[in-house]
Amino acid sequence: MKKLFITLLIITLLLLSTGCNKKQQITIAIPNDTTNEARALLLLQNLGLITLKEGASILATINDIVDNPYDIKFNEVEAAQLPNILQDVDYAVINSNYAISAGINPVNDSLGIEGGSSFYANILAVKKGNENLPEVKALIAALQSQKVVDFILEQYGGSVVSAVDNPGDGYDPTIDYVALEGKTVSVACSPTPHAEILAIVKEILAQVGITVDIQEYTDYVVPNNVVEDGTVLANYFQHLPYLDDFNKENGTHIVSVAAIHVEPLGIYGGKQTSLDAIYDSNK
Fold first, then answer.
1. Distance CA 53, CA 279 (A)
2. CA 33 to chain centre
3. Cis (ω within 30 of 0) for the bond into 193?
4. Which pTM was predicted?
5. Residues pairing with 161 in the sheet
6. How do strand 51-52 and strand 112-113 relate by DSSP bridges?
7. In which region does residue 198 sit, left (phi positive, over 0), alpha (psi from -120 to 50) or beta (all else)?
8. Which DSSP category does 33 fall into?
9. Residues 6 or more apart whose Cβ sits within 8 Å of residue 191
């Protein structure tokens, strides 16, 4: 009886020991739209957390992961919802616009961040055929002004980076602004930073009698749909890879007319405060 008791005790201790030593799987939430998911995975690869198959492009998905040495679990989530579920996961890879809107500072709070590649510059976009309208050119000149460049630097301190190389005074000398006086120009956008930047554009164009109607949306679909159907003249919220994919998937005819700024993608801690929890997870 005594031997049986000792045997059972040893087995119990072994089971408890095994349970205590069981590794906790790390969970990272990433955007579920095609291009931003790829950006997130490329960032994680650059941080040495995963390896993507050779030739994985800007359309890479979790199916393109060939090495996951830390056994990371990925949750694919709508980009706008990532800040809301951050507390429920170990980490999340979040677009800067959504991070800023949630009170997260990409420069100070990110545990790893993209370089400011102009490849992902946020653009002003219109329906094909409207590229050369004078009111579109007026928007471009105002968005690519020194005043906007300065605002981006002062307001966001590196969390948003201007993509404009040669900013101007806000006005296009080829435009007859007198003919545009009294005109209202509508632009669909995300709240942050796009609507805030457009507020500066609104001030610039108000000086020549043009009203900018800023229409804010919190998703990535409606702003393209309202430009496609002609409800709104232009939008300002997305990068070109996303637009190209959207046009392909939806049969829309929207084109980029100007690159304005870059919002670096970053990884942020939820349940974890540093990346050490990942690096330590396979020890």
1. 21
2. 10
3. yes
4. 0.80
5. 262
6. unpaired
7. alpha
8. S
9. 101, 216, 218
Residue by residue, pLDDT tens for the chain (283 residues) are 555 555 555 555 454 444 444 567 999 999 999 889 999 999 999 999 999 999 888 889 999 999 999 999 999 999 999 999 999 999 999 999 899 989 999 999 999 999 766 789 999 999 999 999 999 999 999 999 999 999 999 999 989 999 999 999 999 999 999 999 999 999 999 999 999 999 999 999 999 999 999 999 988 899 999 999 999 999 999 999 999 999 999 999 999 999 999 999 999 999 999 999 998 876 6
Nearest alpha-carbon partner for 164 in 122, 194, 195, 206: 122
Q: How many residues does the chain have?
A: 283
**Which secondary-structure segment (H or E) carries 123?**
strand 121-127
CA distance linking residue 40 with residue 114, whole number of Å: 9
SS3 string, 184-213, reads: EEEEEECHHHHHHHHHHHHHHHHCCCCEEE
Domains and CATH numbers, the chain: 19-115+266-279 (3.40.190.10), 118-262 (3.10.105.10)
* Residue 247 vs residues 118, 125, 156, 168: alpha-carbon distances, Å: 20, 12, 30, 31
**Rg of the chain over all Cα atoms, to the nearest angstrom:** 24
The DSSP 8-state label assigned to residue 27 in this structure reads: E
Task: Give helix then strand counts, H and E, for the chain.
Answer: 12, 13
> To which residue do tokens 């002004």 refer?
145
